[in-house]
Each structure stands twice: as C-alpha cells, then as structure tokens.
Amino acid sequence: MGMRSSQEPLRITSIDDAIHLLPHLLGFQPEESLVTLIVGPPGCSAEGLVARMDLLPLSTRAGFLAGPGAIETAYPSCDMLMVVFSQDVHQGLTILRNGLPLLTRSRVLEAVVTDQVMWLSLIHISEPTRPLYISY
Q1: Cβ neighbours of 40 (radius 10 Å)
Q2: Burial of 32 (0-12, 13-18, 19+ CB in 10 A)
Q3: Which residues contact 99 (CB under 8 A, 6 or more apart)?
C-alpha cells in the first residue's frame, strides 16, 4: 500500500468553517488576535498561508501596516479572509474598520470578529461566492 503524494484540499464554505478551522491550522486557540488566511486567487503562491497577529498593536495605523500590510506587500493582489478572535467585539470591529482601508493591493473577501459564541461581519459579500479550497 503506497502513501498518497497529495492531500485533498480543505474546503471552507462558510465563516463558521473558517472560525473552527483556523485554530486547528495554527495548532492553538487564538485569543485577542487577528488571523489572516490567504485563500487565492487560484494559483496564488501564498494560498493557504495563515498568519496570527496580536490584536492590540494593530489598533494603530503603523501596527496594521506592519501586520496585514506586510502580508499585502509580500503577496500583492491576494485574496484574504480575516478573523479577529476577541472577547471585546467592539474593539475588534474598530480595528478592522480602521485598518482595512489601508490595504489597497489585496482583496479582503470577508472580515469578521468572533468571541467564540457568535461572530459579526464587517464585510458581507452579497454576491454568490465559490467555496474556498486550500491545499496543505
């Protein structure tokens, strides 16, 4: 019996999927963190990249540019999913609301804040979207 040379890609079909999957990809439950997942476009060399950043430093312009902005600089024109894991939902939404306009070369498909009980979206895409497939 041979080993498979490739794995089936992960399929993310909802924000709930992403919220539950990201801690497994990181290997721990993020707290007071922004987790960014690069999900495309298809063929993107960084597809599947997961980055966790402490939330508080992202509350400044310089901090947001040093975190998600650095990902955007390294991988321009990428599609990202951003999830803030925080007990302070208001602070998480404020950080996203202030920081997302600073990202000008990438596309944030969705940005949400979760306290692990519920989640709130800052961006809600009303058009039908394709399921996201991430290979690991």
Answers
A1: 20
A2: middle
A3: 58, 61, 64, 68
Taking alpha carbons only, the member of 16, 13, 12, 39 closest to residue 112 is: 16
Q: How many residues in the chain?
A: 136
How far does Cα 93 stand from its chain's mean position? 14
pLDDT tens by residue, 8-65: 667 788 888 899 999 999 999 999 999 999 988 887 888 888 999 999 999 999 999 9
Burial 62-72 (b: 16+ CB within 10 A, else e): ebbbebbbebb
Which pair of structure tokens corresponds to residue 32? 């007071």
